[in-house]
Automatic annotation (TrEMBL), chains A, B:
Pfam families: AMP-binding, AMP-binding_C
Taxonomic superkingdom: Bacteria
Domain AMP-dependent synthetase/ligase residues, every copy: 25-408
Molecular function terms, GO-annotated: ligase activity
AMP-binding enzyme C-terminal domain span: 459-538
Gene source species: Pontibacter oryzae
InterPro entries found in the cross-reference section: AMP-bd_C (IPR025110), AMP-bd_C_sf (IPR045851), AMP-dep_synth/lig_dom (IPR000873), ANL_N_sf (IPR042099)
UniProt record similarity statement: Belongs to the ATP-dependent AMP-binding enzyme family.
The keyword Lipid metabolism is assigned to this record: yes
Keywords: Fatty acid metabolism, Ligase, Lipid metabolism
Keyword Secreted: no
Protein name: Fatty acid--CoA ligase
Length: 552, 552
């Protein structure tokens, strides 16, 4: 049978591997004196960054005795040190575990043991967490202290010393090993809908290709957000969270100035945006809301700031408020399993010049279009593809060169994730004929009522339009007749009085106008003072459902 | 021994391969109604392009019985048809051979047989070439006629019919095979310094990574030339020549409007630039010179035109003339063996705002800096690296993810090419501490005089500054005492008289001022009416040397 032509390489011909180290190398080519800024504490150039990464590599392999294939964890706020770990750990052939410090101590322990962390680089603020876990961390041999002041600490933990002092004693050059591009470079944990956290993992190749994907989608596409190497980057999604969306790798690849804000404090964030002239960031809507609401914001010029929003849907009102301040705001979509970026708002001001501001806002709050190399489709429960007709509702499934190839040491959930050869996102959406994705729900949050699917997100969006509603969360509750029915948790605005009947009347407008079906109008409401949130600020529907169930 | 962590993928997990087909897929995501224009003859949208590629795939595998691993050649001017071949042929698992129609008929025959062409898509204008070779093309079974008029032709060749008519009969969808990314996608021939043409070859993976490299270097870097998807692309380096520098793949990847000019005719080229509002092109200096010299050019606004120059050095005067017309002109460097792009001028108007126009021009005419993922160094003849100090002169050697892994069926020259694990470019250069490359000569053209190296390019540049010199070429001639000595061929300007002594005096200024050594001043001159050129317009030093040698 005929096969494609594959030729054996010439004996000495170099087979280029796509390695994290090659991302770092680019930073010396163009603007090696550009700076990486840490709060108001330190500034290093790319020349220094490269030397510090070499020092860290020496520290890891000589002093800390880290071997290839071992796991080394970081437990830090967003910092230049974390960036050094993003490079040095994978570059010596080890695996970087990014610990989510917003998890509960027991969950953190679980991830440390499950990932087989041998060494942890831990910020002083988080030492108490590890101290409380002492004796239960199965493979951790050494802990390196990260301290903004440079001070040492005393602790019952096996502290090796303070990071800066340890680095100083190491040579500033290192011969990095040749690695295969499929070597695992990073790992971290996603808190699932049920059960224990799940470990996702990414190879050198996947991270390089994700970086290329972002460089193309954000750099080479004429779009509302178009970046360049002169941009100034600051993350406002933490570095433990899906590689801060891959932007630290991208910024280093392009040699951008980078700003790391440490612990997120609104005043410090705004101060850094202004002082360092930050032009590109990413964050969840909650953080943007906080900044937009900040009393100082009106006196600032934010017209050079581009912000990619992800993590949860960008509310229209927030988008309009940000646009009003001159912030160029778009939506990105992805998840822990996907490295993360899958799609971005596409708003081409030349070809879409006819759009009104309202229509522009519509595009900015939708889920965007799949970026380069992402094959994103809708699938029904039988594994059949559904058309991009703007109406068919199905689960988003994807193929791309940067998706986790499974969950670490969890065959069963790995098989589920990759059923039918596509990665299942668990998100329910429609896709327009022009490719614009609209997520209508998480699969697990969809309400299956009388054989029809009701979108909990849509109900939340409509309920929150009532002038007295501050926040709401809609979940499915079991129903004997209809299988499931929606129940809405509602936080009323201060000094308002609001009843079930008010909200039912409010919602009936939308069923009268055909926006939703009559059967979609919720009849059950709970008035609460707070909506439970997860560690990354998303509505915790799992907990809500659990608490409702335990009432029975 | 410790090894990097490599995890077996989940059974159904999709292993993304980097395939040419995924470049084409992107064109439907953003601006599917953008057009690919062919002269003043036809316009098709990306939607149509995708369908036509499917038709061509059906034509190839059904009608023409092309199997995976076979070679299919194109012999055409720059056209949308050629672009269709760029995609469909590799996408069905075959190998695209781009025939250089500027080679001699015997060389063309050699490449057709050496590449094992099974089918040739041939423009009507080139039928006579193939007709003359009939009976000697060893594996060619079928020939498809490419005709701008759509007319059939009668020929003794095994013509299958005219391209458009054949496409019409094919279905416009096709299930493309899954291919391994290392499958060879393209091949073409480079005329070497000695002996027969050498076949280089590139895999799907290499071409995708080259495309990503260009998208990043040209799109995401803030540089004098920064492109976006709204750019309008037209090649003026032929599509048979190193994938037209990879730009047709890049333009399709980003969904740019594309303009294919067919046969290069200055009036048509300028007309298309203006009518289609072309914003990005690439060409050799000769073509730019021709356009800049065109009497019409002064009445045109070319300030939106970005031009990447390659193939040979951009003369300073030409750069200044182009800048004077508002053309944004930079230099790119690469060769057939390297896909081709290795380096590009880096001129950041923000960080280099202090540069004078003269200094800017200096940067534009140098060889630029290595782009993302290109590891480019200087090596001496012993295989040792030389420093980037702006003084050390050595051969440029490279590693990158898009270099030919050898010469097809030529083990000896493959081994030479990849000696010491780096691809040898044969170019002699210095590299500044900031990474800017200056090519001083081709290795084979360097003049080895008394143990020192004299740059023939530098001598040419200095001789051509004499007001009566129109053009010059300097080559090495054997010398009993000094091993080699420079000899200059000189074309004098019309109505001037110029002697050896005039030129020696002219050159002695430069040795007096220390620009060159005394021993570098040429003493031998030949006054000629024309400098021999190769098929791609470069000075043919091989032929000059051969002719000089045969005089003896």
């Amino acid at each position: 049978m005929a096969t494609p032509r594959i030729l054996p390489p010439t004996p000495e011909a170099h087979q280029s591997q796509l390695l994290i180290g090659s991302i770092l190398e680019q930073s010396l080519k163009y603007e090696p004196d550009r700076e990486i800024v840490y709060r108001d504490i330190s500034r290093i150039t790319y020349r220094e960054l490269n030397k510090r990464v070499a020092r860290l590599a020496n520290l890891l392999t000589n002093h800390l005795e880290v071997a290839q294939g071992q796991t080394v964890a970081f437990l830090d706020y967003d910092s230049h040190r974390y960036l050094e770990g993003y490079f040095a750990i994978p570059m010596v052939g080890a695996v970087l575990h990014m610990i989510n410090f917003r998890l509960s101590p027991e969950e953190i322990l679980y991830t440390i043991n499950h990932a087989e962390d041998a060494v942890i680089f831990c910020h002083q603020d988080f030492l108490p967490i590890l101290e409380a876990l002492q004796g239960r961390m199965e493979m951790v041999k050494k802990i390196v202290l990260l301290s903004d002041s440079g001070a040492e600490a005393t602790s019952p933990l096996p502290l090796e010393g303070e990071y800066e002092k340890l680095l100083l004693n190491q040579p500033d050059s290192y011969t990095f090993p040749d690695l295969p591009e499929d070597a695992i470079a990073t790992t971290f944990y996603t808190t699932g809908t049920t059960g224990l956290p799940k470990g996702v993992y990414f190879s050198h190749r996947q991270l390089v290709l994700h970086t290329f994907g972002l460089a193309t989608a954000l750099g080479a596409m004429d779009n509302a957000v178009k970046i360049g190497s002169n941009d100034v980057y600051m993350p406002i999604t933490p570095m433990f969270h899906v590689h801060a969306w891959g932007f630290p790798y991208l910024a280093t690849f392009l040699g951008m100035q980078q700003v790391y804000p440490g612990r997120y404090e609104p005043a410090m964030l705004l101060q850094l945006v202004l002082k360092e002239k930050v032009t590109i960031s990413h964050c969840v809507p909650t953080i943007l809301q906080m900044l937009v609401n900040s009393p100082q914001v009106k006196s600032f010029n934010l017209t050079n700031w581009k912000v990619v929003i992800g993590g949860s849907a960008l509310p229209r009102g927030l988008a309009m408020a940000a646009m009003g301040l001159g912030i160029e705001v778009i939506t990105g979509y992805g998840m822990s399993e996907t490295c993360p970026v899958l799609s971005l708002t596409y708003l081409n001001k030349k070809t879409m010049a006819h759009l009104t501001e309202d229509q522009e806002a519509d595009l900015r709050i939708k889920t965007g279009r799949p970026i380069q190399m992402v094959d994103l489709r809708l699938m029904n429960e039988e594994g059949q593809f559904l058309p991009n007709d703007g109406k068919s509702t199905g689960e988003i499934v994807v193929r791309a060169p940067w998706l986790t190839q499974g969950y670490y040491k969890d065959e069963e959930r790995s098989l589920e994730l990759w059923k039918h050869g596509y990665l299942h996102t668990g998100d329910i959406a429609t896709i327009d004929p022009d490719g614009v994705i609209t997520i209508t729900d998480r699969k697990k949050d969809v309400i299956k009522s009388g054989g029809e699917w009701i979108s909990s997100l849509l109900l939340e969006s409509l309920i929150s339009q009532h002038p007295d509603v501050q926040e709401t969360a809609v979940v499915a509750v079991p129903d004997q007749r209809w299988q499931e029915r929606p129940l809405a948790l509602v936080v009323a605005k201060p000094d308002t009085s609001i009843t079930d009947q008010d909200l039912i009347r409010h919602m009936e407008q939308f069923s009268d106008s055909g926006k939703i079906s009559h059967y979609a109008v919720p009849k059950q409401f709970r008035f609460v003072t707070e909506i439970p949130k997860t560690s990354v600020g998303k509505i915790d529907k799992k907990r809500i459902k659990k608490e409702l169930a335990s009432e029975d």
